[in-house]
Write a structure and sequence with these properties.
This protein has 468 residues and is of the alpha/beta class. It has 14 helices and 17 strands. It has a five-stranded parallel sheet with strand order 4-3-5-6-7, with helices on both faces. The protein has a four-stranded parallel sheet with strand order 9-8-10-11, sandwiched between helices.
Length: 468
């Protein structure tokens, strides 16, 4: 029997422990279904766990035919004797009492939940503290490699990923990292996060399809802003649009004021000349929007005429509490997947997860698929970039040999309470009950904003979007 070791502990996690934890989660889920009815039951059954029909086929003790909601299943295979135990290392900045450590703990729990759900006894997950410095991250990676890890999941920050990649590459051990800085991708480092290019292209192309052609933008002056600025210019050009004005700002309400005023003056001037700006792109996150929204309202910008556009950095609780943002569009995974995952996570661990936790769950699940479902002589790098897309909590994702990824993103519209999907990830249009783009929400779209309410604000590693 393969032993699974919990982080910061000398006690192994047996398969019985795994079943006990999954049993408690299942009992909680059944209680929730009894309260919420058939619709909730369907939600819990779908979108929670990845589709892992090829995970660890035929492994002794692997789940076969388990129909419990949210549990991955292992398909039978004739390659039964060609598999062996696989060790996966997870590197996270766990030390300390700050917000980063709190987020890292939730990511660790999400990874453990993936291990429990898949229940492959040939997989061993070892979690190591990556510390707060690149040197600590490199040391943790070196230790993981020396202990026989075949795949590393994490770290989080770009400089930590770059440091961990040195010993990992020497040992040909792939890394599935959480940074979305494309500069650290490649040569064995694969990014699981949401990439600015894909998000910006999705929202710009959707806006152009809805008749928006002339754009203005207010972009933060930081690493994320530089990535988004580049992606925005490329996306507008590709879509056949035009950038009329673009300004950047330093953090802080006072620093934002002058650049914002210049943009607002340009919007008013072009409108009076009969060549109005159709859309204003605001890729900043919660802190930036809380300052910009009152400025937009004070300037008298009519957001029914000038469509507000964002990125996934808008994906935070109560984004619609600023009335001026209601009706704004931004790209995101379909929120139903994270909603179901969040409910199961809370039932298991007693608290809602940060938004980035779904990436941790998916990264471990993908590592199990790649490591546990391959032949002994099959290269794990090749298994990670297999042609079939991996279906995780946030929908399909495919890792590429470049280290980047391909994702399908929905377009969400901010509502006063929550959000509505106005264009599904497959481009098929709004979900039933969602408001038409730019129109008022229907009763079905309003609800209580569950998808957004379950997302907690995080700092430092807050959202999967900003470059870190």
């Amino acid at each position: 029997m393969t032993r699974r070791t919990t982080p910061n502990s000398q006690y192994p996690l047996s398969r019985q422990t795994s079943r006990d934890l999954r049993g408690r989660a299942g009992q909680s889920a059944m209680a929730l279904v009894a309260l919420a009815g058939v619709a909730a039951a369907g939600l819990l059954a779908g979108g929670c766990a990845p589709s892992l029909g090829s995970v660890a086929p035929g492994l002794p003790g692997a789940i076969a035919g388990d129909s419990a909601p949210g549990h991955a299943q292992a398909a039978p295979s004739s390659r039964r004797q060609q598999h062996r135990a696989v060790k996966i290392a997870m590197l996270l900045p766990l030390a300390g009492m700050g917000q980063t450590a709190i987020i890292a703990k939730s990511m660790k729990q999400a990874g453990e939940l993936a291990l429990f759900d898949i229940d492959n006894p040939a997989i061993q997950l070892v979690v190591k503290d990556a510390g707060q410095t690149p040197q600590a991250s490199a040391a943790a990676a070196q230790q993981a490699v020396s202990e026989g890890a075949e795949i590393i999941v994490g770290p989080v920050f770009a400089n930590a990923v770059a440091a961990a990649a040195v010993p990992a590459r020497q040992a040909r051990v792939p890394i599935i990292a959480f940074s979305n800085d494309r500069n650290v991708a490649g040569n064995g480092v694969y990014l699981m996060s949401y990439l600015p290019d894909a998000e910006v292209e999705r929202i710009v192309s959707y806006a152009v399809a809805r008749g928006k052609r002339r754009f203005a933008a207010l972009v933060p002056q930081d690493g994320y802003g530089r990535e988004v600025d580049r992606a925005f210019r490329a996306a507008v050009q590709k879509s056949g649009g035009e950038i009329v004005a673009i300004e950047s700002y330093e953090p802080g309400a006072n620093a934002m004021l002058e650049p914002a005023q210049r943009i607002f003056e340009t919007i008013k001037e072009t409108s009076s000349l009969g060549s109005p700006i159709d859309a204003l792109f605001l890729p900043g996150g919660q802190d930036a929007l809380s300052s910009l929204a009152p400025m937009i309202a004070y300037a008298g910008i009519d957001t029914r005429q000038v469509q507000l556009l964002g990125t996934g950095a808008w994906d935070f609780p109560n984004v619609g509490r600023d009335d001026v943002l209601v009706g704004g569009w931004y790209p995101s995974p379909d929120p139903d997947g994270f909603k179901a995952f969040s409910e199961r996570f809370a039932q298991t661990f007693g608290q809602a997860p940060p938004r980035i936790a779904s990436l941790a769950y998916d990264a471990v699940a993908l590592a199990i698929q790649a490591g546990g479902g391959r032949r002994d002589n099959e290269d794990v790098h090749g298994a990670l970039v297999a042609a079939a897309a991996f279906k995780g909590v946030d929908g399909p994702v495919r890792l590429e040999s470049s280290g980047l990824n391909k994702r399908s993103l929905a377009v969400l519209e901010v509502q006063k309470f929550g959000v509505a999907v106005i264009d599904a990830a497959d481009g098929s249009g709004p979900k039933p009950g969602a408001a038409p783009a730019g129109g008022p929400p229907t009763d079905g779209a309003r609800g209580d904003g569950s998808a957004a309410a379950l997302r907690q604000p995080h700092e430092g590693v807050a959202t999967p979007r900003p470059v870190f």
